[in-house]
């Protein structure tokens, strides 16, 4: 024992540098599903389909409409932080889309 009496005061030195939680909205992460493949892999459990004819214009319009709708619900004041492409085989998606 050191002989010093405990004053009961809290030592705040270890918590003084902790920043308060940010009030800024968290960033967004977007998952874009491309459901088409050249062939269906036997192990694949994703919603994917073999298609020889894909209406790219219709998919582009649907993607824009869905992103606009979701942005109006969840995106106000938030920045897009991550974009995930999945499916199917997203590398088959034309770059113009």
Low-confidence stretches: none
Average pLDDT confidence is: 83
Indicate the structural class: alpha/beta
- Tell me roughly what share of residues is in helical segments: 10-25%
Termini separation comes to 73 Å
What is the C-alpha radius of gyration, as a whole number of Å? 25 Å
- How do the strands line up in the largest sheet? 1-4
**What's the count of strands?**
4
- Residues in β-strands, percent: 15-25%
Secondary structure elements and pairings:
Layout: E1 28-34, E2 36-37, E3 49-50, H1 56-75, E4 80-87
Parallel strand pairs: 1-4, 2-3
Features:
two-stranded parallel sheet, 1 helix, 97 residues, alpha/beta, two-stranded parallel ribbon, 21% helix
In brief, what are we looking at here?
This protein is of the alpha/beta class and 97 residues long.
Q: What does the model show?
A:
Helix content is 21%, strand content 20%. With 97 residues, the protein is α/β, with parallel strands linked by helices. The chain has a domain at 35-92. The longest helix is centred in the C-terminal third of the chain and has 20 residues, at 56-75. It is built from one helix and four strands; from the N terminus they run E-E-E-H-E. The mean pLDDT is 83. It has a two-stranded parallel sheet with strand order 1-4. Strands 2-3 form a two-stranded parallel ribbon.
